[in-house]
TrEMBL record:
GO annotation, cellular component aspect: plasma membrane
PANTHER family assigned: PROTON/GLUTAMATE-ASPARTATE SYMPORTER (PTHR42865), PROTON_GLUTAMATE-ASPARTATE SYMPORTER (PTHR42865:SF7)
Name of protein: Sodium:dicarboxylate symporter family protein
Chief place of localization: membrane
Location(s), subcellular: Cell membrane
Gene3D superfamilies assigned: Sodium:dicarboxylate symporter
Annotated transmembrane regions: 12-28, 40-64, 76-98, 142-159, 189-211, 217-239, 251-271, 291-315, 327-352
Amino acid sequence: MKKIRNVSMTNQVMIATVFGVVVGIIFQEKVESLKVIGDLFLRLIQMSVVVLIMGAVIEAVGSLAAKELGKIGLKVFIWFMGSTILAAVIGVLFGLLIQPGKGIKVNGFEAENIKASTQSLQEIIVDFVPKNIIEAMAQANMIQVIIFSLLFGLALSLIKDKDKNAILLDVVSAFNNVILKMVTLIMKVAPIGIFCLIAPVIGTTGIGVLITLMKFLLTLGISAFLFLIVWLLITALYCKVSVKKLAQNMWRMSVVAFTTTSSAITLPIQIEDGRDKLGISDRISKLVMPLGMTLNSNGLAMFLSLAIVTFAQFYNIQMGIGELIKAVLLSTLACLGTVVVPGGGLVALATVMPMLGLPTESIALLAGIDWFSGMFRTVLNVDADTTVALIIAADENELDYDVFNM
């Protein structure tokens, strides 16, 4: 028992993942009932996500002077857009190179109940702002929650500077500490929860669909791996740190992201490791990471651009330079305000497919492997958000190199 307790949480999660795959293959549909426990674990984490994000953004913005927020905000936006566009471009390039859409044959597939967005660009922009913050919180509309939190934090910052009164900011900070502690306690049962999530997925889906679409998954995995290497090198050079140490310090959050397929669930671990392993100040991490979770979806951008190229190959549709550029831009824009829990990728795909003249019913081809492609997407999302926070911290002289090199 003592030896088990000495195994790190990261290793426990990895063991649980492998064990879940093996049990799912052996027992197949018999383990479907375990999904209840896995769903309970997800809900325990998800129930605090909205208030965690809201509190983190309010505290981060409220702690800043107004002019600091404008300067940092511009830097964050530039790095977010740069990383997302790079991910989408790599997805297109590897789609053209490996051609995963050639030879995919699935007979009798039916479309899932996924509807593309019918909103105009104007309606999408207006929908960024909540009519009712309570309703936005109840619906877990992250982009609306963040817009409210930014304005609330800005107002709090102005009042703090003018009246020299930080009582409410202290209350928000204390509340955030309680939420983080609660999530930390829940994460102690993460190996059990993750095992009970993965085993039923493998058991009910089977490895047949994986074999059929293995080429797409393999292409996505190679693209994600290359992006991470390039992006970590860029970050290490910019921040003047060891790329090997950077990868080591981000290992735990990457494993949690890979196994849960949820940026929201990984966020508490991300903030904790950002402070304790990477040396990022709380002020920067609590501002950049929640924003990145909603606005910077590198993994989704890569998934969408690769899926577009794959389906074009599947239907023998030739894509010129103009269509490929459009695919990159649409994949980048579709990431704004995307759902941060498993399944959001299919909804985003249903939104961009009609804009390029591709049939939405073909989305069903990827629905069966959405969980597995979500593993790669989430790792890219989480790691890119963290590295941007590291870059901003280095720029603002709020990166503790002693903590990073411990």
